[in-house]
Design brief:
Elements lengths: L1 E5 L5 H20 L4 H13 L10 E6 L2 E10 L3 H16 L14 E8 L8 H15 L5 E6 L3 H9 L3 E8 L2 E8 L4
Parallel strand pairs: 4-5
Antiparallel strand pairs: 1-2, 2-3, 3-4, 5-7, 6-7
């Protein structure tokens, strides 16, 4: 049985492991070293607490037969500065890192920060199901514009997003990677 649900703090360590599949290099840039254990600890701590980009509050879980298969994190782009502050504070206090990442989203969009699927569940249409859930829930029911970034080199993902109705609206850099900024506008 398939199910979408909001995450809880108890999901933090599993969600952190999932996020490493999709944002490992960015997290390594954040913490300043290529250490998976520290990166997972960093993400787990953020997921457990409220009011930050990676908080359980902004996380949805996709389950199959009561097992977590995937996750997505999304939030109001207008809140980026507020939601990013706890991330930057944790990096400064525990990792001695003072970084100034570029703004990956903007006001006027619900930003899809991350979608991640465990390898054993990939290739089964789960990514499309997660995106269809997001589109139905936020673009159709709430009339919101959805935004996301896709790496210049990930043309397969770009093609998937285009097939779902997303269009390139610009380019953004995040940490050391260049991305297409794509949006699905309400009513599209």
């Amino acid at each position: 049985m398939k199910n979408f649900r909001k995450a809880t703090p108890n999901d933090a360590s599993i969600v952190a492991q999932l996020l490493m599949f999709s944002m490992q290099e960015i997290v390594f840039d954040f913490i300043g070293e290529k250490n998976s254990e520290k990166a997972i600890e960093f993400l787990t701590e953020l997921i457990k607490i409220e009011n930050n980009q990676y908080s359980y509050e902004n996380t949805w879980i996709y389950e199959i037969d009561d097992k977590i298969a995937g996750t997505c994190i999304l939030y109001d782009g207008a809140l980026l500065e507020i939601l990013r502050k706890p991330v930057l504070d944790l990096l400064a206090s525990q990792y001695n890192r003072n970084i100034n990442p570029q703004d990956e989203t903007e006001s006027g969009e619900i930003y899809i920060d991350n979608v991640a699927i465990f390898p054993e569940y990939r290739g089964k249409g789960i990514g499309s199901e997660i995106f269809q859930f997001i589109i139905d829930e936020f673009a159709i029911k709430q009339g919101k514009t959805l935004g996301l970034l896709v790496d210049f080199n990930n043309l397969r993902a770009k093609k998937l997003y285009e097939s779902l109705g997303f269009k390139v609206v610009g380019e953004k850099q995040l940490m050391s990677e260049n991305h297409f900024h794509m949006q699905l506008k309400k009513g599209s």
